[in-house]
Amino acid sequence: MARSVPFNWKAEIWYTLKLRASVEKGQAVLRAKAWPRDEAEPKEWTLTATDTMPNLQGSPGLFGNSTNAEIFIDNVSVTLND
User: Fold this and answer.
1) Which backbone phi and psi does 51 adopt, to 5 degrees?
2) Most buried residue, 8, 10, 12, 82, by CB count within 10 Å?
3) Structural domains counted in the chain
4) Which residues face 49 on adjacent strands?
5) Is-contact 34 15, C-beta < 8 A?
6) What is the 3-state secondary structure of the chain?
7) Within a domain: 61
8) What is the pTM of this model?
9) What is the tens place of the pLDDT at every residue in 26-61?
10) How many angstroms separate the CA atoms of 28 and 56, rounded?
11) Full residue range of the structural domain in which residue 40 is found
């Protein structure tokens, strides 16, 4: 499953990334939002995707892929959905 939206990443800026995964009607619904670390969290989700054949067992993973740029992931926390 792949999904993307336009997002203007800026060099030398740290971002906060929030992800939410939930099961709705037997499907995995994935939501994400990203914003500059020192700004307020946006109310709307930047991306929503549905996996109609989800793997409901196992552990989550997080990775990044970028051409000609380094990606750093720091201060990860996993919590229950609100």
Assistant:
1) -105, 115
2) 10
3) 1
4) 30
5) yes
6) CCCCCCCCCCCCCCEEEEEEEEEECCEEEEEEEEEECCCCCCCCCCEEEEECCCCCCCCCCCCCCCCCCCCCCCCCCCCCCC
7) no
8) 0.76
9) 899 999 999 999 999 999 999 999 999 888 787 777
10) 8
11) 24-56
Residue 10 has which token pair?
């800026």
Query: Does residue 36 lie within any of the structural domains?
Result: yes
Tokens of 18: 């929030």
Return d(Cα 45, Cα 33) in angstroms, integer.
Answer: 5
Give a yes or no: residue 34 inside a domain. Answer: yes
Euclidean distance between the first and the last CA atom of the chain, given in angstroms as a whole number: 25
Return d(Cα 38, Cα 20) in angstroms, integer.
21
Residue at 74 is within a domain: no
